[in-house]
Amino acid sequence: MKKYILDLEVTQNIRLHANYVLIKMTHANLLPEMLPGQFAEIRIDGSPTTFLRRPISINYVDKAKNEVWFLVQLVGDGTRKLATVEKGDVVNVVLPLGNGYTLPQNPSEMKPLLVGGGVGTAPMLMLGSELAKMGCKPTFLLGARSSKDLLQLDEFQKLGEVYVTTEDGSMGEKGYVTQHSLLSEQHFDMIYTCGPKPMMMAVAKYAKANEIACEVSLENKMACGVGACLCCVENTEEGHLCVCKEGPVFNIKKLLWQI
Length: 259
What we know:
Largest sheet: 7 strands, antiparallel
Helix content: 10-25%
Distance between the termini: 32 Å
Number of helices: 6
Strand order of the largest sheet: 4-3-7-1-2-6-5
Structural class: alpha/beta
Strand content: 25-35%
Mean pLDDT: 96
Number of strands: 16
Shape: globular
């Protein structure tokens, strides 16, 4: 897909949590087509310690409002500076980057499970929305440390059934996503996941054991977003591939994970 360098205008900056903000942006012209699982490289202005763009998953695209949403976790100087933008500010963004999730050819016959952990829930919202539009009702399994870390639940509930786990048991079932009773009670035809690598590896192990197709969105450190800097390479059956260019979404069969 063609990539664009755009100056986007902030329409909203919503503080969801002490460590998370939802930033919505628009453009004077129609935003380019974006696919679930793709990401953007966002320039951070005004931060003396931040020299590289920050890769942020595309959370959702509101075509009616011509808005793109970014769910940003505050983890360093760059994302903390980005989190201070206000309505009317202009942010330079490169998008869409990478390859997205594989959408089903026969959506009405498919029962997908979308598993997200932490900020890895971000691409699950857009993916769930696209599946719902295709007539394929998604099931979401979302994991977090506590109830305070479960984000955008109201948006997910508009699209399908939502199940949650929290490590402290403050909401849903206590434990990790792969320990949820849902996995033993229902069968799924496809699993999509994004989140911390240990979580995704556990989900991939479950999928493999149950012979379920599974795609994961890797979160390797990415600087350039176009496969030039080679800092995000992942070892695969095809050799070392740049996650930003060949991914970030991969079928687990392609990855050399010990699952």
